[in-house]
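Explain this one:

_____
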Amino acid sequence: MSQLLPLENLRNTRDLGGMKTADGRCIRNGKLVRSGHLFGGSDADRNALGEMIDTVVDFRTPQEVEEKPDPPIPGVKFWHIPVFDSLKAGITREEESDAQVIQMMMRDHHKAKAYMCGIYTDFVSVPFEVSQYEKFVRLLLEPHEKAVLWHCTAGKDRAGFASVIVEELLGVDRAAIRKDYLKTNEYLENDIRGLIEMFYAMEGEENPEAELALRFLFGAREDFWDAVYAKTEELYGGFDGFISDGLHISAEEREALKEMYLV
């Protein structure tokens, strides 16, 4: 299980260190870090990250970056690798796309579920999105003195799937990958609860259907996990095929990643 970092304002920043692999090794501590956006981090948070990381990968759209830019951290290089080439309602979190969410899906949680499953299957089937994840993995192949941190906005979808890719590449047990993916719900519960209460205030009444829809849109769900793994099976014969034929990561490069990040 990844370890939540003891930061003041960044609630979903986690070190993958300690996650065990099928060959008996584990991920090195202080080398691979997943997160939500860094915009709201305190001075203490930025100082702590500056001690730990030397690289930040930002998966957000240019509009998201403009609205909530990452703060500079001395000695840290920032890479912008947007996973999406357009707004994605409910995911990219710009004001424009969030307004669309309320209009589109609050009356039918099945639509919210189907929409999010589509977001996840796009990760492995839309050429642009696959190419961006390949860029991310190739960045991990470069030498780093400190940790690489990657993030989107909430740290659950774009960054969450990037974490799945890293853990699969390094040979972490799939049950552990699933468990770690779903752990995001615990760290984001207060944020999700706030969105639900905001919607209730706008509507003037509680609406269980809307609450369920919001939990699909803003939480991590097994449905999404199942959808993306099923898509890799359909398109590539499984996740290993996605790594080799989608991300174009060779067996030698995969071994190099293990040498770099496992102990």
Notes: The chain has one domain: 3-261. The mean pLDDT is 91. Residues 3-261 form a domain with the Protein-Tyrosine Phosphatase; Chain A fold (CATH 3.90.190.10). The longest strand covers residues 53-58.
